[in-house]
Amino acid sequence: MHSTLKEFLLKKKLFFEKKIDRGFSSHLFLARNKKGVFFVIKMERHDSTRFKMAERESENLKKANGVGIGPKLFDADLEKRIVLMEFIEGSCFSEWIFAGPSKTGLKRFVKELQRQAKVLDKIGLDHGQLAGSGKNILVRKGMPVIIDFEKASCNRKCHNLSVIEGFLLRNPKGAIAAKVNAILG
C-alpha cells in the first residue's frame, strides 16, 4: 500500500479493505471506519496525465451533492490528491439491466435517472460520461446513483438528459437501448 494512502487512512481513522479498481487517472480503494461504515477513496495515480483529478472530482461532486445527486462527498485532501466519498452498495447499470429487472422497476429507474439528468442540466453541470457502457451509473435498491464526476464540467453545454435518453431509448445499435426497449415494450 502506498505511504500517502496509509497516512490518509490513519488521519481519517479508516481501515483499508481492498483495492476496488484502477482507472485511467486514479485508483479506487474500499475502506471502513471502526463502526463498519464503508467509504470509497479515489486517489490520483502518479502516472496520470490528467491534471487536478482530486480538485475536479470534489468540486463537481459537491455541486451534484447540493441537489441530491451522486455519492456523498466526505472529504478531499488536495495535497495528497485523494477524495473520500460514500460507498454505493449496488451493481453497475449494464449488469443490472441484463439481469432483467421488472418492467415496473425499470420504468421507475428510468424516470428517476431522467429526473437526475434534468437537475444536472438545470444547475449547469454536464457529466460528460453517462452513455457508453453505463459504468458511471450504479444501481442501489433499484434506483440510479450517478458516479465519477471527474470529467464533469460547468463550461460545456449541458446535455445530460438527451444523452441519457439516447443511451437508454434511442440508440439503434446499442445493446442497452435494445434491452430497455424489450423490457418496456
Explained architecture:
- This protein has helices at 3-12, 53-65, 93-98, 103-123, 160-170, 175-184, and strands at residues 15-22, 26-32, 38-44, 73-77, 82-86, 91-92, 137-140, 143-146.
- It is α+β, with helices and mostly antiparallel strands and 185 residues long.
- The longest helix has 21 residues, at 103-123.
- It is globular, with a radius of gyration of 17 Å.
- The termini are far apart.
Structural key phrases:
single chain; five-stranded antiparallel sheet; alpha+beta; 6 helices; Phosphorylase Kinase, domain 1; three-stranded antiparallel sheet; Transferase(Phosphotransferase), domain 1; 185 residues
Quick description:
The protein is an alpha+beta fold.
CATH domain fold name of the largest domain: Transferase(Phosphotransferase), domain 1
Major sheet strand order: 1-2-3-5-4
| Shape assignment | globular
Summarize the amount of helix as a percent range. Answer: 25-40%
Instruction: Indicate the mean pLDDT.
Output: 93
Question: What fraction of residues sit in β-strands?
Answer: 15-25%
Q: CA-to-CA gap between the ends?
A: 49 Å
CATH class of the largest domain: Mainly Alpha
The profile of the biggest β sheet is: 5 strands, antiparallel
Whole-angstrom Rg: 17 Å
